[in-house]
Amino acid sequence: MRKQIAAANWKMNKTLQEGQQLLHDIVSKMPSLTNGQHVIFALPYPYLGILKSKVPVQSGQLAAQNCHHASSGAYTGEVSVSMLKSLEIPYCIVGHSERREYFHETNAQLAVKVNLCLSVGITPIFCCGEPLSIREANNQNSYVGTQLDESLFHLDAAAIQHVVIAYEPIWAIGTGKTASSEQAQEMHAFIRSAIANKYSAEIANGISILYGGSVKGSNAGELFAQPDVDGGLVGGASLVPEDFLQIIAALKKES
Ligand code: PGA
Predict the structure, then answer these.
(1) Is there a domain that residue 30 lies in?
(2) Average pLDDT for residues 46-54, to the nearest whole number?
(3) Positive or negative, the Cα torsion across 203, 206, 207, 213?
(4) What would the DSSP string read from start to end of 171-201?
(5) Nearest CA owner, ligand 1 atom 6
(6) End-to-end CA distance of the chain
(7) What integer pLDDT is reported at residue 174 of this predicted model?
(8) Is residue 168 annotated as a catalytic residue, yes or no?
(9) Less packed terminus of the chain by CB within 10 Å, N or C?
């Protein structure tokens, strides 16, 4: 079974004390994860080192929400992949649509970030997804295809296997408007076929593709039941313990 992942993206929410409480409320009630099920908490940078000890390995792992596209240097306020690596952070979100929109991150820059993550052994959680206007014009496949081409498909067959992909239609993020499970499955199948065409079916079958965009406790079951949906990248609902626990419980189990 591919890795099934419930990833919490806290974004710029919660003070340290609130975050500590939130982690406690989730971790203390966490169901025991079966083989292949993973929980990830993408915390704000300053909390990564401090809260790491609050997440026992059997309950989850940490992710950064971003990294800089240079390996070090005079970039005041930024954080490099080697800094994350020195904190033993195993995952990093790359190319979230909010970073693309508000910080003008380009596909080419994201390719560099993906390379940097992989160069230090951090797994990038690479986000892709189309805005509403593209969906309305039914051009979502070519839009997402270009994102994959320009940011991921320069990788060789060995490297691509260390990437997690998150499909997050922008019109569904934080809007309460979830893609239907059919829309999610259709796009995930498209992404998997693009990987198969570029690399091989075997490689495509091994890569986890998460869905993101208004995942909640109430819709996670239906979304995660889709054959090509390997869990979710969750914003708002990851800040509510009951909701996120329900989302974790909806992950596929090894049969
Ligand atoms: P949302 O955010 O669950 O609040 O829609 C998802 C994301 O942006 O990763």
Answers:
(1) yes
(2) 95
(3) positive
(4) GGTTSS-PPPHHHHHHHHHHHHHHHHHHS-H
(5) 235
(6) 9
(7) 80
(8) yes
(9) C
> What CATH number should be reported for the domain holding residue 195?
3.20.20.70
Q: Are 179 and 219 in contact (CB under 8 A)?
A: no
Q: Model-level pTM greater than 0.90?
A: yes
What does the pLDDT read at residue 204? 98
Percent of the chain's residues with pLDDT above 70: 100
Distance of CA 54 to the CA centre of its chain: 21
Q: What mean pLDDT value characterizes the chain?
A: 96
Asked whether residue 50 is assigned to any structural domain, the reply reads yes
Pocket test for ligand 1, best of 234, 238, 243 (most atoms within 8 A of CB): 234
In the block, which residue shows the tokens 């992710």? 63
Cα distance between residue 213 and residue 211, in whole Å: 7
Residue range(s) defining the domain that contains residue 159: 4-249
- Interval between CA 138 and ligand 1 midpoint (Å): 22
Encode pLDDT of 206-247 as tens digits.
999 999 999 999 999 999 999 999 999 999 999 999 999 999
44 belongs to a structural domain:
yes
The token duo for 49 is 């080192």
The CB of 212 under 6 Å from ligand 1? The reply is yes
Distance from Cα 201 to the centre of ligand 1, integer Å: 29
Structure tokens belonging to residue 209: 């593709």
Q: How far apart are CA 201 and CA 210, in angstroms?
A: 18
Residue 255 placed within a domain:
no
How much distance in Å is there from the Cα of 167 to the middle of ligand 1? 11
Residue 201: how many CB atoms within 10 A of its CB? 12
Q: What is the pLDDT of residues 58-81, one digit of tens each?
A: 889 999 999 999 999 999 999 999
Number of domains, the chain: 1
